[in-house]
Amino acid sequence: MLLFVQIAMVVILHIVLIVLLMLVDMRLLQTNIQSINTSQPLLRHAVQRLHIDVILLQEIWHPADGKINIYNYTHAIIKTRQSSQGGGVAIIAHRNVKAVHLKEYEVDNLEAVWADVMVGKVRTVVGSVYIPPGDIVALSKLDSVVGEIVKEHDHLVICMDANSRSTLWDDKCVGIAQSCRSLQMGAKLEEMIHRFSLQIHNSGVSTYYSGNSATTPDVTLSRGIIHYGNICWSTIDDDLNSPHLGILMNIGHKRETVRKHVIDWPNFDWSAYRVRSRVMLSELKNKWLINTSISTDVMADELSTGIQKCVNDVADTKFVTEHSKPWIDKVLSEQFKILRNQAKKCRLRKSPTNVAKYTELQQETINMVKQAEQQWWLRECEKLNSASEGEKWKIISRLTNQITTSDVQPIRKLQNGKIVYMFDDNDIRSELEDYHIHKDAQKGSLGDHRESGIRSCY
To answer: Cα–Cα distance between 120 and 68 in angstroms, integer?
Structure first.
């Protein structure tokens, strides 16, 4: 009977897992970061708070050491300018995202990178593109690249700083002379949108604020993703140390964030707990001495309840998620809220006082994040002296951010003379089974073809 119950529980959990996987969406963050070196502390917090799957950045400039390091995210796909400062684009995927860098679509003199990504049941090509102001030639190159992509792929999302204006996504350009270069580029981009039946997701909200100017140079386009479910496009309040607002794009069903209410054990007040528990245990002892007929089950229950009450009276609690960073505490969380509120206030009224206070708060927050992360790093290093061998490797992995690859990588296969990628777990399992288990039973031309195709995966 017990074995039957255990099997039934396993089956139920498997069904629940399948349902959850079917409901998982893809969450993209698009932003012109204007130097990843100065914005990375704030970006790390934003992607953790918003549970981002894929980050698409423009104007990363030149990252220190040529890397963008965010815990639990893979190494970034980066393209930087070689001959001058500024510019540069990147795509960064969470470790749970299956991703393939599509190098074949990268061309000279076009700042764009492309990747084939999959989250749950949502699979699409994503691109991060930066078009410099007035560079209509880059738009023509983008037109050609998109034409090549849609020949091979049915799903596409383009996150770009187009530096192009059109009433289709920027109603504030109404009344501007048609001879304006940005409007001419907007017309060129419109032609590409109509030619490839791309969908514009911008809602008309401005994405760039500078002084009293508010425009929408950041554009999000897609093709063929509507059948995945609801698509939600919005700007975020998180400050990223850039005049451009971050853009959040949700594809598929709404994801319910799993938040756990836990005790903050690292900061637990053991002295206060010792005092309370001493009183509680003394009271229980006196009660049990008086009433000797109490059963051991009742005594155990009273002891457990008393200990839990002492913990609840003393402990501080916090909410955590799978993306939570260990150095983000209540003080930092409140600081981020204050910064977001000041950013809103500054956008509504750019008075010298508001701007000065916002700049001061921004720098103060960045310094607090860096200090908190450094203190956490030092505490982890101190644990190495007394940790076991197994625990030492876990600590070292956390400190060095060695989790830089996806959990399951897609398989590359040669099929009908073309290279294709297999993303679905069932397809990957079947292909590996055919190669490693059934290859001896399948000889001849079919076996030779399969072997040559699979070898290209490794």
So the answer is: 25
- Helix (H/G/I), strand (E/B), else coil: 28: strand
Main-chain phi, psi angles of 227, to 5 degrees: -75, -10
State the chain's maximal CA–CA distance in angstroms: 96
Query: Are the CB atoms for 70 and 90 separated by under 8 Å?
Result: no
Answering whether pTM is above 0.85, one says no
Q: How high is the pLDDT of residue 86?
A: 87
Q: Which residue has the tokens 């500078």?
A: 210
- Confidence category of residue 259, pLDDT binned at 50, 70, 90: low
CA dist., res. 127 & res. 198, Å (int): 14
Q: Which parts of 97-241 fold into alpha helices (H)? A: 136-152, 181-195
Please, are residues 43 and 70 in contact by the beta-carbon 8 Å criterion? Answer: yes
What is the reported pLDDT for 257? 54
Q: Decide: 142 and 159 in contact? Cβ < 8 Å.
A: no
pLDDT at residue number 442: 56
Q: Which range among 96-105, 188-197, 351-360 shows the weakest confidence by mean pLDDT?
A: 351-360
CB 98 within 8 A of CB 118: yes
List of residues 6+ apart from 262 with CB closer than 8 A: 317, 318, 319, 320
pLDDT of 361 > 60? The answer is yes
Q: Alpha-carbon distance 370 to 374, whole Å? A: 6
CA–CA gap between residue 27 and residue 234 (Å, rounded): 12
Where b means 16+ CB within 10 Å and e means fewer, 10-24 reads eeeeeeeeeeeeeeb
What is the Cα–Cα distance from 34 to 43, expressed in whole angstroms? 12
Question: Helices 352-383 & 389-400, crossing angle to 10 degrees?
Answer: 160
- The fraction of the chain above a pLDDT of 90, given in percent, is 37
**Angle formed by the axes of helices 445-455 and 425-436, to 10°?**
120
Q: Cα(446)–Cα(448) distance, rounded to whole angstroms?
A: 5
Q: Could you write out the DSSP letters of every residue in 247-291?
A: EEEEESSPPPP--EEEE-GGG--HHHHHHHHHHHHHHHHHHHHH-
What average pLDDT does the structure give for the chain?
82
* 174-178, 202-206, 229-233, 267-271: range with lowest mean pLDDT: 174-178
